[in-house]
Each structure stands twice: as C-alpha cells, then as structure tokens.
Amino acid sequence: MGAGVTLQIVPRSPKSQDGKNGKEFEKMALSLELDKEFEKMALSLELDNADSNNENYKRDTVVDLIKARWGWLLVFFAGLMVAAVVVEAFESILRDHVALSYFVPLLIGHGGNTGSQSNATVIRALALGQLRPSDVLLVIQKEAIAGAVMGGGLGLLIFVFSFLWSGMSSEVGLTVAIALPVVSIWANILGGVFPLLSARFGFNPAVTSAPLMTTVVDSSGLVIYFLIAKWILKI
Predict the structure, then answer these.
(1) Which long-range contacts (CB under 8 A, 24 or more apart) does 92-100 make?
(2) What pLDDT is attached to residue 37?
(3) pLDDT in tens, 70-93
(4) b/e 215-233 (16+ beta carbons within 10 angstroms → b)
C-alpha cells in the first residue's frame, strides 16, 4: 500500500533557468507528477477491489454479485442494529426531551462526513508514501485537533440557534454543541487510524476502512450524544 512517488525530472525552459519563473515552473512540474501518481494509485485501489469473481461484470451472475457484496452488507446491517439498540436504550431521554431527536440525523451525518474526509485524506497520504502504518500518533494528534475545531465551530452555531428557535431549549442546544466536537474528534480519529491499521495488517484501506469507520461511528456517536445529554440535562 505504501507506494512511493516517482518524481520526473522536467527540463527547464530558457525562461525558467533562474529566479521566480524557474521556481514556479519546478513547482508546477512537481504538482503535475503528484497528481498523476495519485491517479495511478486510485486506479490501482479500484482494481484491487475486484476479486477473481468480479473482474468482468458482463460474465458475473447475480450470485457472484451477491457473494462479492454480502460481507460488507452484513457489517452495515450489524451496525444499524446496534444503533437501533442504542436508541431503544435511551428511549426515556428522547421521550422526555423530544428536541434531542431532531439532531440525531445531524450527529450521525456529521460523524460520517468528517470521518470520511479524514479517511480519504489518510488513504491519499498512504498512496503517495507520505504516511506509513507506524504514523498512528501523528495522525491521531492532527485529526483530533481538526475535529475539535470543526465540530466546535458547528456546535457553537447550534448553541446560538437554540436561543433563537422556540422549538428547543438552551440545554438541548448545549448538549448538541458539546456532542458535535466530541463526535467529530472520535470520527476523525477512527477515519484516520483505520486505513493505517488496514495497511499494517495487509488489507486494502480503500475497501475496508471507510465501511468499518462508518459502521462504528454511527452507533458509538449515538452513545456519546445520549451520555452527554444525560450529563447536561441531569437525567
């Protein structure tokens, strides 16, 4: 997975021998080579995703398609079942504070979105040789900070909005405002670490890490949200 980047030496034009024009020309050449390398790696990851039964769609039977997709569908199904169990476990909180349910899709969606961004960034860095599976602590640190800043900003908007909308109390607004950065940090860390773990154990990060991250974040994000609600609302 840790393919390196091959830099092509591009001849300089007469106008780019010295000074600013020369440096800009070199940067453009390097950028183009990195883009080409990333495109090759992305194509390689897509090809790795196709096993021997999946190489020709026209020849595949419906049974072949089901076999190829069944495993991850079971993972998704298990994750959704866990999420349903979590919601049922905190049913009393939702019954007493209905406004909390308004933001369940927001929490789950935000966790999945920010985790997917982290996941894609780390996979790209692995493909370009910028990261190795051993760089776990570096990824955790950077993704946690990024998640805290992004989630905190969105949470602040929700908290301010709670004073302007009669449909929710400031306590619910504060609950969401705290839960958003916490879920964002958690999702970012999972999205960044899962590709490294996949690469370390010989799996294709592009195939395994994103579905696993989404499944874990959906259920664990709800647990985080409801536990914070119990703490803020003193239930």
Answers:
(1) 92/235, 93/226, 93/229, 93/230, 93/233, 93/235, 96/235, 97/172, 97/229, 97/233, 99/167, 99/168, 99/169, 99/172, 100/172, 100/175, 100/225, 100/226, 100/229
(2) 47
(3) 877 787 788 778 888 888 888 888
(4) bbbbbbbbebbbebbeebb
Q: Taking phi first (over 0 means left), then psi (-120 to 50 degrees means alpha), and beta for anything else, what does residue 72 get?
A: alpha
CA dist., res. 160 & res. 205, Å (int):
39
DSSP-based three-state secondary structure for 89 = helix
Query: What is the CA angle 186-170-92, rounded to 5?
Result: 70
> Contact at 8 Å (CB) between 54 and 66?
no
Q: Quick: pLDDT tens for 193-209.
A: 999 988 888 877 776 67
CB 173, CB 98: distance < 8 Å: no
Say if residue 144 is exposed, middle or buried (CB neighbours under 10 Å; 0-12, 13-18, 19+).
middle
**Alpha-carbon torsion 118, 187, 204, 211, what sign?**
negative
Residue 27 pLDDT > 60: no
Q: Which two tokens stand for residue 71?
A: 């495993």
Which residues are within 8 A (CB) of 204 and not within 5 positions of it... i.e. 6 or more apart? Answer: 1, 45, 48, 49, 198
Token pair, residue 107, equals 């929490």
pTM: 0.69
